[in-house]
Design a protein that fits this description.
Elements (H helix, E strand, L loop, with lengths): L1 H18 L2 E5 L8 E2 H11 L1 E13 L6 E5 L5 E6 L14 E13 L1 H10 L4 H5 L5 E14 L2
Parallel strand pairs: 2-3, 5-7
Antiparallel strand pairs: 1-7, 3-4, 3-6, 4-5, 6-7
Length: about 150
């Protein structure tokens, strides 16, 4: 009987592990219903601030601790994604992966100091950081949950 219980426990754990296609960070979200970044940009332009579930390709991640990432937009730009209340981080090696994230998007002006901080986190040189002299207005996203495909 004991062996039978152990066998069922192993099968149960294996089914849970192999059934998941994503690693989850922050709030638990599901991948269904995610819109592409192009649609997000269009909706955000119309409404200003929008709550959405989005799918997109990660361009880069904060190399200090995974506390932000940049997601590619269809227009060649990127959108900075931060995490609600600094409450979770993502792996630093997910550049190039197509992820799903949920939260709020809005147009935001990022100060020179904040842009320099992000450049430092990204490992930019002191010369590159010094060249940042103007604030930047762009679409920004605060995620409450992120799904990263398993390797």
């Amino acid at each position: 009987m004991k062996k039978l219980i152990i066998l069922f426990a192993i099968i149960f754990v294996a089914n849970i592990s192999f059934g998941q296609k994503y690693d989850s960070f922050g709030d638990k979200i599901k991948p269904s219903g995610a819109i592409p970044t192009a649609e997000l940009a269009k909706k955000a332009a119309e409404k200003g601030t929008i709550e959405a579930k989005v799918t997109g390709v990660v361009e880069s991640v904060c190399q200090v601790k995974g506390c932000w990432m940049k997601v590619k937009m269809d227009n060649g730009q990127t959108m900075r994604v931060t995490f609600k209340d600094y409450g979770f981080f993502v792996p630093k090696d997910i550049a190039g992966k197509t992820i799903v994230f949920e939260g709020n998007a809005k147009t935001k002006t990022t100060s020179v100091d904040e842009l320099r901080h992000y450049a430092e986190d990204a490992g930019k040189s002191k010369d590159e950081i010094a060249k940042i002299t103007e604030a930047k207005t762009e679409l920004a996203f605060e995620a409450n949950g992120v799904l990263v495909p398993k390797k």
